[in-house]
Design brief:
157 residues; alpha+beta; Thiol Ester Dehydrase, Chain A; seven-stranded antiparallel sheet; 3 helices; 7 strands; 34% strand
Length: 157
């Protein structure tokens, strides 16, 4: 992770350590977060390594953020205390996120059953809608039983 990324995040965002060193999001992020009431806003600054050949953020990176919003992001809201692995995710790309854009998203839990959580998110690039996604996550094992113990609630002041 570069120092430039940390400096480029808006001042009200905190670096999120969501997983073990060397894991997928650690290598592909960094992601930053801030509280908005009972919601978690997550974001990142588009770096050259996030870009496709057209010099805009690769769709895979955008989907990775959507996945993190629909899983850990909604856990912040519903506080189930469970790990929320993705069962299904569907997304629509609405606009590109150019190099150096600030990309952020917000998720909303729509319905929770005894085993599943249905959610949606909207991701913007420099304030303009760039991706919308809906997803289903499973109510998995207790977060405290996982090796990385990624309790999202303790990560953002």
């Amino acid at each position: 992770m570069s120092t430039k990324s940390i400096e480029a995040a808006p001042a009200d965002f905190t670096l999120l350590r969501l997983s073990q060193p060397g894991s997928f999001m650690e290598l592909n992020g960094p992601l930053f977060g801030k509280r908005e009431g009972n919601k978690l806003v997550m974001g990142f600054r588009v770096e050259p390594r996030h870009c496709n050949p057209a010099n805009v953020c690769h769709g895979g990176m955008m989907l990775a953020l959507a996945d993190m919003l629909i899983g850990p992001g909604t856990e912040f809201e519903v506080q189930s205390g469970r790990y929320l692995p993705t069962v299904s995710i569907s997304a629509d790309f609405m606009a590109p996120a150019p190099l150096h854009a600030w990309v952020e998203g917000r998720a909303e839990a729509l319905r929770m059953t005894t085993s599943l959580l249905f959610a949606q998110c909207l991701i913007t690039a420099d304030g303009k809608p760039a991706l919308r996604a809906s997803g289903i996550v499973k109510l998995g094992a207790p977060v405290s039983s996982l090796p990385a113990n990624p309790d999202i609630r303790g990560l953002v002041p």
